[in-house]
Write a structure and sequence with these properties.
alpha+beta; 7-stranded antiparallel sheet; two-stranded antiparallel sheet; 9 strands
Length: 264
């Protein structure tokens, strides 16, 4: 199911923003596609802050095709002028075809350049789709999905296992430790660690922490009447102080401050 704003810290400040489901042909490769479009007045900017999913993104805009790695802290982009981007939140099965060592891209990004002709074709087709008027987003996703399916090819059984691993780590709120995830998947903790490093770039524990923090941020923002201690307990934090430390280490602010700011 596509969550329209999870991971977005200040949804009310977004320009036009859409998350579109992955077409069936890339359901094993992409969680969803995301498309912001903006038109900012001259001399102004709009800062968009995210506590991103622990996954790689492949992003096309009018100028480049970029592969973005997992982030360990709040990330942001300052939007200026007029523009758009079309991004794919990648599932692990897509990663091996695009990068050998995703850990090398943590908190970074790089242009996707090889093979040059194929990358140029992707950018050309997505730009043409985004310039085509009504239905442009759906057409952009269609050509992007077709390109990615061709680039990755057949999905192997180990890649499917990596997808299942991240599904458990990111979707199962009952899983609070790597040991619980390994038991659920029927693998050793060491195997779990190797697979997340190879397909995501970070540890299983870090993925679980990010999932909890995303959900905590959403609840702090969307449930102003619920006390922070209750949110902490529901999400498996040891206490309110534990939630506050997690917030401050990644977001740089306390949850009570975030709650006040997000209501503005």
């Amino acid at each position: 199911m596509v969550n329209p704003t999870r991971g977005v810290l200040y949804p009310a400040r977004l320009p036009e923003f859409h998350r579109l489901p992955a077409p069936a042909e890339v359901a094993e490769l992409v969680v969803w596609f995301w498309i912001p479009e903006w038109d900012i007045a001259a001399g102004r900017s709009s800062r968009q802050e995210m506590v991103a999913y622990p996954a790689l993104n492949l992003v096309v805009d009018a100028d480049a095709v970029m592969l973005s790695g997992v982030t360990t802290r709040v990330s942001h982009r300052d939007l200026r002028g007029r523009g758009w981007a079309v991004g794919a939140l990648l599932r692990p099965a897509a990663v091996a075809a695009l990068i050998d060592d995703p850990a090398a891209l943590i908190d970074g990004e790089r242009a996707l350049t090889a093979p040059e002709s194929a990358v140029a074709a992707l950018r050309h087709d997505v730009v043409a789709a985004m310039d085509s008027g009504d239905g442009r987003r759906e057409r952009a996703v269609e050509v992007f999905a077709r390109w990615l399916a061709d680039r990755v090819g057949a999905v192997s059984e180990p890649d499917r296992q990596a997808n299942a691993l991240t599904d458990v780590l990111m979707d199962d709120a009952a899983v609070l430790t790597p040991e619980e995830a390994a038991t659920r998947l029927g693998v050793s903790v060491r195997t779990l660690q190797r697979m997340t490093h190879r397909h995501v770039g970070i540890s299983p524990a870090a993925m679980i922490r990010r999932r909890r923090l995303q959900e905590a941020a959403q609840r702090v923002r969307d449930q102003p009447g619920v006390d922070l201690a209750s949110i902490a307990a529901d999400l498996g934090y040891s206490d309110h102080a534990h939630l506050t430390r997690d917030f401050q280490s990644v977001l740089g602010i306390a949850p009570r401050v975030y709650r006040a700011e997000s209501s503005l």
